[in-house]
Amino acid sequence: MGRKILSLLLVAMLAISLFAGCAKAPEKEEPKAPEQEEPKATEEEKQEEPKKEATEDFKVGFVTDTGGIDDRSFNQGTWEGIVKYAEEKGWTEGTEYQYIQSNEEADYIPNLSAFGDDNYNLVIAAGFLFEKAMKEVPPQYPNTNFAIIDAIVEQPNVASVTFAEEQGSFLVGVAAAKTTKTKKVGFVGGMDFPLIRHFHAGFAAGVHSVDPSIEIVDQYAGAFDNPGTGQQIASTMYEQGVDVIYHAAGGTGNGVINEAKNRVSNGENVWVIGVDKNQYADGIYDKENNKSVVLTSMMKRVDVAAYNIIEAAQKGEFPGGKVTALTLADDGVGIPKENPNLSDDIIKTINEYKEKIVKGEITVPNNMEDLKAFEENLK
Amino acid sequence: MLKFITDEKNQRFIVPLVSVFLGFIAGAIIMMITGINPIEGYRALIKGVVGNPRRFGEWIVASTPLILSGLAIAFGLRTGVFNIGVEGQLIAGSFAAAAVGILIELPRFIHLPMVMLAAAIAGALWGLIPGFLKAKFKVHEVVVGIMLNYTALHLVNYAIKILPGSTNTKTVDIFESANLSSKFLSSITKHSRLHWGFIIAFLGALIFWYIIERTTFGYELRSVGFNPHASEYAGMKVERNIVYSMMISGAFAGLAGAMISVGTFNYARVIGGFEGYGLDGIAVALLGNNGGLGILISGFLFGALKAGSSAMALAKVPKEIAEIIMAFIVLFAAMNYGIKRLILYLRKEEK
């Protein structure tokens, strides 16, 4: 019996090595091809063919992180941008555009590669967690363009898009400072890394520009997809007397919004500032009167970024190897047009600050060191 | 043919095969209900696993940790402990492997075995705690195991950040001498992440089978699992054997963790929550009938469903379908008594 199993195992191993052997053969031949000069003409012809196809049926792929396209945050925003473009062109999902959700971090590379294998023209991924995968996959698919949002990857066929989150966060900081009655505001971050510090530093700078005496309580949840933790942190902060919380925590922030809803329903006076999208609708606690706990939102127009990149790629103007930085001046970040919870007075103040930032009179800090220097200057 | 199927001796592998078959049938029905052509769906799945060399490589990569975590669970089940702490032991192992890979640099032929040893020891130590508490104080290993999963998750997340050069999300890349990846394997599979870990998975299955089936030590462990009182009466050291069971199970889990950190990624990551390799291991062990060979096969099957889901998504089949099929297979495997009855019923008909 034991021998049987052993021999079976050996056969299985052999089978695998056999397969490996088979697969190796074509690889060996390939490097020879460039040495021969004659068949160049045919090669060029070959290259032209797929290009023609490319303009006829353009295919866009989107790889989400574990949050999925309904994370009410940047994955959803990016997907909405893609869908908007697709609808204008009359595309159908599955043929011209498609998404793959990653179950875990280990899926990033295979998911990006899957689109490459299927000769997609453009593959988009949102989130700096894709940085490493975006360095490894695109070199293997030179005929596919890749775009990454929130990170900078230097590859000839990768376009990077970044946002000046600190500028938008500054404006919601102003809103928070003007709204708080307890002189205590809170910041909930997803995971503690430089990108989220942009939100943190910008927000703190905005709050203290209005009133340096306001206390800012901050905490990092350690995850972007854990509403339970978000709710817990929010509960603790509100207990401490915080009355406005700004969250930059993706799905975790939904817990913050839920906690605020519960408290407002119980007659407390607390607010949440949304992030990435206009989260007003997520914070509605009184449907009849359309009342929401979301004071305003720091919008990061990932949808616009995705839309623009697809448009550029289809026109043949794909900004490969370049970094597109979207700021307050481009409306890449900012607050929503409609803010039912902000008084005209506050909106006026926000617009004044916005102008100063756009003109360069205020340089908003995007890390904690610069924030310290910024706050020193305020005194 | 029917005789072969209904023969009692062959039930061991007939029942899992029937479970898998029923699982895929159930998946097909779900696809039909949701308006997807099941043939297209399964074609996409197969294409996603063996469609090109890269996908084949990714299939092996996805299967490797599943096999080892399946072995970990099965080792516990065969020896009478339910090691739900595999998830935590796996996290501990993945960290230990990465830490040894980052902190020291040695020639590959020493370094790589050291990394594997570190992972196995870390997993074994993390398994020692519930084993010891169960043996000495009769604390149930499931309770301690679940608690220790969280402890491992947060402790490792903290420890990763204090390694030199780590950012808040991951460590630096480990030394090349410590990672399992191979340019050769990667090139024959067209840039997949295929690494040498699959050999460790095969060896693991072999060692598992050898310990359980061929040694007195393994016989004692199994005997303690079957009936601790009888074993004690027969002169076996029950308490010691429980601790050993948990430690060996933990060592397998630790190796599974090493597959992820020094195989798939080449660095250790801060994770927000459990990635479920431990739970998947329960499914693998269950379907594989807690045997070495069975686990190898079921590990590759579940790996295929995991790795193939991206190709299914491209063919407009939601990735959840693959998860549903997995769940159905586990469900049918758990109902093995019913399936056996069904097969026995067939035998009666025959007579």
Automatic annotation (TrEMBL), chain A:
Keyword check for Signal: yes
Single GO cellular component term: plasma membrane
Subcellular location as annotated: Cell membrane
Keyword Glycoprotein: no
Domain of life, per lineage: Bacteria
Signal peptide bounds: 1-25
Pfam families on file: Bmp
Domain spans labelled ABC transporter substrate-binding protein PnrA-like: 60-367
Main location class: membrane
Topology term for the membrane: Lipid-anchor
Location of the region described as Disordered in the Swiss-Prot/TrEMBL record: 25-55
Gene3D superfamilies membership: 3.40.50.2300
Alphabetical UniProt keywords: Cell membrane, Lipoprotein, Membrane, Signal
Protein family: Belongs to the BMP lipoprotein family.
PANTHER family given in the database record: ABC TRANSPORTER GUANOSINE-BINDING PROTEIN NUPN (PTHR34296:SF2), TRANSCRIPTIONAL ACTIVATOR PROTEIN MED (PTHR34296)
Protein name: Nucleoside-binding protein
Biological source species: Paramaledivibacter caminithermalis (strain DSM 15212 / CIP 107654 / DViRD3) (Clostridium caminithermale)
UniProtKB/TrEMBL annotation, chain B:
Mode of membrane association: Multi-pass membrane protein
Record flagged with keyword Transmembrane: yes
Record's keyword annotation contains Protein transport: no
Record's keyword terms, sorted: Cell membrane, Membrane, Transmembrane, Transmembrane helix
Location, primary (coarse class): membrane
Annotated localization: Cell membrane
Transmembrane segment boundaries: 12-36, 56-77, 84-104, 110-129, 194-212, 242-265, 277-301, 321-339
CDD domains in UniProt: TM_PBP1_transp_TpRbsC_like (cd06580)
GO cellular component, one term: plasma membrane
One Pfam family linked to the record: BPD_transp_2
Highest taxon, organism lineage: Bacteria
Gene Ontology terms for molecular function: transmembrane transporter activity
Name by which UniProt lists this protein: Nucleoside ABC transporter membrane protein
UniProt source species: Paramaledivibacter caminithermalis (strain DSM 15212 / CIP 107654 / DViRD3) (Clostridium caminithermale)
